[in-house]
Specification:
Helix content of chain B: 10-25%
InterPro entries (chain A): DUF1302
Keywords (chain A): Signal
Order of helices and strands of chain A: HHEEEHHEEEEEHEEEEEEEEEEEEEE
Pfam family, one (chain A): DUF1302
Number of helices of chain B: 6
Radius of gyration of chain A: 26 Å
Number of helices of chain A: 5
CATH class of chain A: Mainly Beta
Helix content of chain A: under 10%
Number of domains of chain B: 1
Distance between the termini of chain B: 18 Å
Oligomer: heterodimer
CATH topology of chain B: outer membrane lipoprotein receptor (LolB), chain A
Number of strands of chain A: 22
Shape of chain B: globular
Organism (chain A): Gilvimarinus gilvus
Strand order of the largest sheet of chain B: 6-5-4-3-2-1-13-12-11-10-9-8-7
Structural class of chain A: mainly beta
Strand content of chain B: over 45%
Protein name (chain A): DUF1302 family protein
CATH architecture of chain A: Beta Barrel
Structural class of chain B: alpha+beta
Shape of chain A: globular
Number of strands of chain B: 13
Radius of gyration of chain B: 18 Å
Largest interface: A-B, 71 and 77 residues
Strand content of chain A: over 45%
Number of domains of chain A: 1
CATH topology of chain A: Porin
Amino acid sequence: MNQIIPTLAVAAAALFSKGIGAQSFFEAIPTETTTEELDLDSPWTHRAWVQQKTGYGWHAPSLPASRDKAALTRTETHLFGEIAWRKNAWRLQASGSIVQGWLPDLEDAGVYSRYTFTTEQHQQRRWHLEMADTFVSWQNDDWWIKAGYQTLAWGESESLKVTDVLARRDQRWPGQEDLEKLRLPVPAVQITWGKQLDLVTIINPLPDRMPAAGDEFDPYADLGQQQPNIAIVEHSDNRPGVALRYRQQWQGLDTQWILADVASYETELETVSAGEKGPVAYVAPWRQQVAGASAQWVSGSWLVRTEQALHFNTKVASADPVAPWQDTRQWRGMLGADYNGINDLVLTAEYSWLYVDNWHSGLAGERYQPAASGRASYTLLNEQLTLEAYAQAVTGGEGSVMRLMVEWQFSDRFSAAVTAIEYNGDHPEDLLYPYRHNDTLLLNLRWGL
Amino acid sequence: MIRRYLHALLTLSLITGMSATAVAQELSAREIAVKSDTRYTGDSSRADAQLILIDRKGRERVRDIRLYSLDQPEVEKSISFFVSPNDVAGTTYMNYDYDDEKDDDSWLYLPALKQVRRVAAGDKSGSFMGSDFTYSDINGVNTDWYNYTMLDENAEVDGAAAWKIESTPKPEFKDKVESETGYLKSHMWIRKDNFVQVQGQIWTQRKGRMKYYSAQQLELIDGIWTPLRLQMITVRNNEKEHASVFQFSNFVYNEHTDDALFTTQSMQRGIQ
């Protein structure tokens, strides 16, 4: 009876009768989409997008960076592609991005010449391939083996690495990463047994991706100020990393325990020596051992999370910035909660800490170094609009980062996001103090192909 | 989630050997609602779906999803693999819906993070993947929390005889229902021949907004009545604000019984 409703009846309903008027809303809405196009049985899946990312720094950095005034920080084009194939127990996937940073080219062409780039910046920003997860996997009953480049996310803590020690990171633009690139894949073999026990071997991991000399987040800029023309030579740890994880789930509770003997992805300053062309600083990741556990517990609208880990042989900077880093034993912990009891709003807060067991006054930081972060994320208009606010107090009171983001999903293919990131460091000894003027406005446009 | 969704919204009971119409005369509003909610819907199911989101200007966004469900003695498990578009492709949602009063267990795998995360499932009033369906629509509700009143024993929907029943939360569950579903009360149209809820009118907490649910294109698949199209329209001040349509295809019952499909490892592996 609802298929055909006389116009008069609808009009009358709107005017006089809520009950009759309601009937029109039961009619089938015509849609352009048809299920005839749906083929989810194909062994092939793929996705691709083009992304244009543009950053603008609205202050002059306080570091001696290439950019010495308010100007564009990056204008990058990313072409991402992913193709996957599956048949029975087997899966193959290849994915990655071709990335081009246009600013040095624009500067060379005289189109945009607000500042001059170093050779290393040129090299780092020109066309390059960023590998994403690319692997082959096989599963049979209790066994699942996955080999190739893979992102290993073993922790969730945002303010401190507690158990998430297997993932490489991109440190070139801290706080500005896309969600997909918060962690980078590493060459690894993962063997899972019984859906609970994971054994991972990481092969020849590289250190975190670091900013080029002259970039505004150059971690060695301070060193360069003290020793002009210093060259940085980076070594990697070629020994395979090994990690074991056991997971157990109960109603309302997930837990995991981990043991890891892996190279850190961060690098320590090993030595500074005189070279033929000037001083040379040798940096390298260190070998660390980690024993940890984490748990997630849900009740009603609350999700409570914790991660706890002991880190052994973890290096910490010395109070003297040119002295070698020193071994420490650390207890790292995080306690956090998510609350999603208010419509489509998700509130997240976490408190984390780093406690140096064998602390002494020759170390750069304090014995107890707290950190915290908070996030409010609200989706509205049927997830077309996302508003997000995020704040993080960096470990040990070394500064803070705040981020505000607005994202609009124009269609299934096109979205745009504007993000403002502010860095704060009040005291000269703070980690973020040299970067306190690197506040950036990011525009992200993404077209699905 | 999807299990309950299939259970509560999609499928109809087979009341073998009985005339539902004949039985209908003797059933109270509560008995009808419970019968509609607890029909046999197969021990497992698989379906492909397109979730079509339609804004007030008629523009469509589409999510392609493969859904599996498994009914076990004390828990109903479901897993849904999102295949497209780009921004949700690879996302997987898994839900364990326990028969007793325990909260659901829910997990979400986000391919951008390469991580399975637990989801607090207490508040089900939030939008399901940006649609007009909420998690409470998808997961179903506990019929013990409601009073049911017969409004019309001789209603009719698309020429089929139906009951029109009002569902209101019992006073002791009013706050719980409102906080978990965001709904104040609803009117349900349940067909007499197969106990399918084919229409629903829902009063929401959000001022000036009403929701209209309809189940269409009923087909008998593997002996189970299955609506292949579900529609939810949000209406504000008597004007359509947004609409969502679940369009199903490739529906199969009782094919999968492997519990291993409903694990966080499956979520990471992707569509099966």
